[in-house]
Structures are given as structure tokens and as C-alpha cells.
Queue: 4 jobs
Job 1
Amino acid sequence: MENFNIIEEKKNSLFKRKEIKFTIGAEITPSHTEVRRIISEKFSTPEENIRIKKILGKFGSNDFTISVNIYDSEQDKLDTEGPSKKDAVAQPETPAEQPVEAPTEAPTQKDPVVEPVTETLVEQPVEEKPAEESKEEKTE
């Protein structure tokens, strides 16, 4: 990551957090993991206390504007905002958050195998109809 410029930094005592907005120069959009690591180093805080709000980039520009909240503790972060899907990737699942398996159903009967019907064609004699007289013969 190239340049790091803080645009806005304010302390929010009600929610026990710092709200920071900054720009960063990069060739590609920085991932949440990268941003969390950079903020952790710059502000000497654990990565668990950081919530990334948004990463915005403009078309054709290598500058990205990032909004971040840094909480005093991880519990303050969870109490204020709750768990997020992006943070769940970085944190291991607790036993309470593991998915519950669906109950298994009794085996159902399989449908009987239907075999295709093959018809054999039997030639039947065709009855010959008497030929009708043509109209020319009737007029004579």
C-alpha cells in the first residue's frame, strides 16, 4: 500500500469507538483483511476491535476512500453493531454459531422402474376397394 492519508478522525464516546475516514493508494481494491491489518498497525489496536464500514474506489483512480470504526474492545463492537459476515471469515466459529444439521428423513420408496414400451408392427392385409369410375366414363 502506498500513501495513507487521514481525512477525518473523531472520537464517539457514546459508542466507545473512533470513527476514521482515510484514503489509501493501491493498484487494486484492498481486501478487508489488508485494511484491518494496516489500521491495526497504524493505531496499535487489535484487529478484532476494527469494523470496516466501506471501501470506495473511483473508476480509473488508484485512490480508495475507506471508512472504519475502531472500538475500545471486541465486546463493545459486538454490542453496538453485532457480528457481520465479513468479520465471521476472520474469526473462528463458536459452538453456538455452528449450523444445526437437518434431521434425516426415513428412506422413501423408490419409484418402480418403468421400461419403455416397444411395439412390434404387424402388417395387416389391406382391403382393396373397387375402383370408382372416372367422371369421363359417367358422362358417356
Job 2
Amino acid sequence: MSRREIDYPKLVEEALRSVAQKVLARVAEEGLPGEHHFFITFLTDHPELEIPASIRDTYPVDMTIVLQNEFWDLAVDDEAFEVSLRFDGEPCRLRVPWQAVRSFVDPAAEFGLRFEAQEGESKEPEPDQDRVEQRQSPGEVVSLEDFRKKDE
């Protein structure tokens, strides 16, 4: 694309990422309101992601974290968000660049955003429909299907 063309998809992507950023910044200041909580999926192979090697080894492509009951020290800036969670009972600090985030979901509000990989980034794999992961504890990978309202 030439410099003279308007890259609308990129502008929309940036605007949507800013929604997630503003929401997390508000939660960092005020805490989670009501029943709100978040499922955030991000690429674990992003070069600027800061997570322990053991977690990256366990989740080599992507992972989903839950910000609900047990998270601490949420901090948000223009480049990334940082949060402390427990993995296998051990406290762990994550720094997740906004460019690594692939989805942001608030089931309480029935709201979700999905972001596309930018040029030069790895693509998120298609979900395995046969795998249903059970919710265990904050910091564990979960299936969003477990939390969606079922049509009767």
C-alpha cells in the first residue's frame, strides 16, 4: 500500500485495541466493577512478551488468562499491560504487549473483540473444536464455550 492510501483496517484495529487498553486502565485504577471479568488471549511467541520460560514452554503459541478474582498489580501503558497471576500456585508477573493480544472478552457484558495478526507476526491457530478445556483456576487456559449462554 502506498503512503497516500488510507489503511482503514489498521486504523480500526488500533481503535479496537484502544478499547481494551482503556478498559484495563480503568480497572487498574478503580478495580473490577460488578460482575465484569476478562478473558484475554495473547500470542506467547511474541518477541516483546515477558513471561516465565516454563509458561512459554507449556503454551508455545498462545494462551488465555482470566482477570477476575485473583490478579494483582495491574498496570497499563501505551505499549503493554502488566499483571500478576498465579500459575500452579506460584505468583508470576506477565507483561503483554498490545500487539500480542488476539482477543479480549468480557462475558458479563457479552462483549468481545478479536484482533488480527499484523504483517510479520505469527497467526493464531484455528481453535480445536474437539478440545474442551475445563476451568480450573485463574491463569489457566479455558474454553469460552463454557461461559456462553446456550440457546434453549
Job 3
Amino acid sequence: MFASCVAGWHSHRASALPGGCVRLVRESGNPHDPNAIEVHNTHGQRIGFLLPQQSAFLAPYIDSLPISLAGRLLSPDEAGYNEKLAQTRPQLIVSVFMNPALGSTIPARTAVTSGYPQTMLDRPT
């Protein structure tokens, strides 16, 4: 699990509510960032992107399918929530799940399976 934020939030028409779950989707054909990972709301609309340095690290693992990602926006009642940031770059908690059927070479400190339904383990994004 790691902290991030939704980059590009201000340039997308779609949004998500604080505390809401988001889906992280690999966008390998992005002409501006070959490692891009989109952040989608529960309606499947793009609300922004994962930070480029985090995408650069995670993209090779997603492309080879040993991991999947799940996210949640911070809510106002959580420690670290920043109202000003929530308007421009909402804070995001990302969980990384190993797909046990494929195995993984991702560092153990990055792979976390607590806090989300077990079915997320079997579902690549």
C-alpha cells in the first residue's frame, strides 16, 4: 500500500467523491507517457492519472500481469486529508495485489493484500 494523488484531476470532466474507490487501469498506448496508469471512478470514467514516477515503477509489473491495483481516495475524516489538495490533486491510497496464479517478482514490501476483497487478487486491471 502506498500514498499517491490523482494527477490531471483538473483537466477531466469526471470526478469521484472523497473516500470513494477508484480503479487503476494501464494505458500503454498513451502518447505522452508510455507507462501511464489511468485512475477511473466507479462509473468507469477517467478522472486522472497515477503520478508518472509511480507508473514508471509499476507499469512493467502490470504489463506482465503478476499484479493488479486498487485505490481509494482519502476522505475528510482521515488523517492526512487536505481539503485544498482535494480540489486539485486528490490524495489516493493505492494497494498492490499479487496474482497468485502467476507468481510475482515484485518486492515483498510493495505487495500488500489486506483491506480489499480477496477477489481483487485474481483480477488484473
Job 4
Amino acid sequence: MAEIHGRLENGQMVIGVEVFRQLYLRTFFHFLVPISRLWGLRNILDLAYTFFAKHRLKLTGRCSDKGCVVSTPS
């Protein structure tokens, strides 16, 4: 849960922001990929994603200091 993982068509595993870059390459947002790889911006995105991934349940309201709530389908 600390980091997103993806597998490319050739079997190579990618993690973190690179997963989103690979997804964007295959969509209308492909033009964002070269921008996201610029020196400096790449580091900022990687750090921001690492923070978000580790804290996303609290940031999205699914967990608090008291614990996490797991919803079950009806």
C-alpha cells in the first residue's frame, strides 16, 4: 500500500510516478510525460507522490488516528 506498481507489456515492473507516466503515454495526456520528466520537476513529483502514497488513507478521509474504516459492498 505504500507505493503503486505496474507491469509493462514486456513484463518490466515500474513503480511510483513512472506508473502514471506510462498510463499517460497511452492516453490524451501523453503530452504531460516529457514535462514530468524535466530535471527538478521529476524530483518534486517523486517526493510528492511518496508522501501522498504513504498518507493517502488519512488525506482522503478513510483513516484517522482512531483507525481505518473499511466499507463493504452492499
